[in-house]
Design goal:
The protein contains twelve helices and five strands. The protein has 334 residues and is mainly alpha-helical. Among the domains are: 70 residues, Multidrug-efflux Transporter Regulator, Chain: A, Domain 2, CATH 1.10.1660; 90 residues, no CATH class; 47 residues. A three-stranded antiparallel beta sheet has the order 3-5-4. Strand 1 and strand 2 form a beta hairpin.
């Protein structure tokens, strides 16, 4: 931020240039009561450093998501001496990091190494590189574009082959899954589905804490400075609770369902096979047509099931008969 000389005076065009706002925006702020009117000196309107500071404060609050109506109330509180320190501290606490992770950078070559595929930009004619390898690299390019869309990777202006990784843990999980044989498209689809569910959990947690903890600090007007400072301290204390709760519940659910799924596949749960489950079986169309003509389309599936069961029973009977015959031959005297 450029330091301004003390007691500086600006025309509206100069104020617009220094603040980054347009002349039209400055006049709109004046009409809304967000910005004081300029001082009249002769036939000219003159703005001061106070106007410049006010415009910068408005821009900062807009960047934090405040509406102009809310900003007006905050600025009125500031003007009456109530101060914005507590409110801005609360905003800073909410806007602060919700994880201990630190973003890292990764090159395109490192992505290729971690996720496989031909080196980025390799031509088919290059020695030792097959057309299939280049196709795999093209698939990886599509996956990179999707990762950028999902926010797993962020492009860095002016550096086409370097990306920012906001969550190294998330990228590491994707690499492990891919290494275990999960296609990148399946990983992206799973992340999209998981993100919807996690965002629902976040909304519910915020609704819960707003109702039971923060309701007394929220109202039609911005909180007093002391209340905002107290609310900021509460945010700092409660910040880890959401993640700790989700971690504990996820661990419980994974233990329960993983154990149940393993027992089901190993047949150790003591339950009979689920006869309600079905599988697709290829049957010649002529056979299906003949059965439909014989028993009707509505009974075709039942016919095939009963016929198969009868065949299995017949084979079992044949096996028992053969076994009995063998036993009789062994019992005959020589």
């Amino acid at each position: 931020m450029t330091e301004e000389p003390p007691g500086a005076a600006y025309r509206i065009e100069d104020l617009a240039h220094r603040s980054g706002a347009t002349v039209r925006t400055i006049r709109a702020y004046q009409d809304r009561g967000l910005l004081p009117r300029p001082e009249r000196r002769g036939r000219a309107n003159v703005y001061s450093d106070a106007h410049l500071a006010r415009l910068r404060r408005i821009a900062e609050l807009l960047d934090r998501g405040y509406t102009l109506a809310s900003i007006k109330e905050l600025l009125e509180a500031w003007d009456t001496g109530r101060g914005l320190g507590g409110v801005l501290g609360l905003v800073a606490e909410v806007d602060g990091p919700w994880t201990d992770e630190e973003a890292v950078r990764i090159s395109r070559a490192e992505l290729d190494e971690r996720f496989g595929g031909a080196p980025h930009g390799t031509a088919v004619a290059d020695a030792g590189v097959t057309e299939a390898a280049v196709t795999e690299a093209a698939v990886t390019e599509a996956a990179v574009a999707e990762a950028v869309e999902l926010g797993v990777l962020e492009r860095i202006p002016g550096q086409d082959d370097v990306f920012l990784v906001p969550s190294p843990q998330e990228l590491a999980v994707a690499a492990e899954l891919h290494g275990a044989g999960v296609p990148l498209s399946a990983i992206s689809g799973h992340l999209r589905e998981l993100r919807v569910q996690v965002e629902h959990i976040a909304v519910r947690f915020l609704e819960f804490t707003t109702e039971h903890v923060f309701a007394r600090y929220l109202g039609d007007r911005p909180p007093a400075d002391a209340d905002a400072t107290e609310a900021a301290a509460l945010v700092r204390r409660l910040r880890p609770l959401a993640r700790q709760t989700v971690d504990a519940e996820l661990a419980r659910a994974m233990r329960l369902f993983a154990h149940r799924e393993l027992r089901r596949h190993l047949g150790a749960d003591g339950h009979a096979p689920d006869r309600g489950r079905t599988r697709d079986v290829a049957v010649p169309e002529a056979t299906v047509t003949a059965v439909e003509r014989s028993v009707g389309a509505e009974h075709t599936a039942e016919f095939f099931a009963l016929a198969a069961e009868r065949e299995l029973r017949a084979r079992r009977l044949d096996a028992l008969t053969a076994q009995a015959g063998s036993s009789n031959k062994l019992d005959e005297p020589p």
